[in-house]
Amino acid sequence: MELYQEILCHVFANEKVQISFPNLINTDVTKIVELECYKSLAKIKAILENDALTDSECFQQIEEIVCTFEELGSGGGNRHDFA
């Protein structure tokens, strides 16, 4: 079985790979990223404009912003590593 896998790996290593996302309506990557960024900025703006929170609850607002970045696949860096 090892020889079979080696031969198969060698054949695949020399082949081109094509990836497609048939359910993705908009294939313009720049527009996809821009739309996601806009959604996140709108969410961050709503968090910052929430006057229902007192100054002592500001930490929670910042936490929500960091979580918004994490939803995008980004993060808060070392400052959000509270574990």
Can you walk through the features of this model?
By secondary structure, this protein is mainly α. Helix content is 55%, strand content 0%. The mean pLDDT is 77.
Structure characteristics:
mainly alpha; elongated
Topology of helices and strands:
Elements: H1 2-13, H2 29-48, H3 58-71
Helix pairs in contact: 2-3
N- and C-termini, Cα separation = 44 Å
How are helices and strands ordered from N to C?
A: HHH
Radius of gyration: 22 Å
Give the helix/strand class. Answer: mainly alpha
- Major sheet summary line: none
Shape: elongated
Summarize the structure.
Helix content is 55%, strand content 0%. It is mainly alpha-helical and 83 residues long.
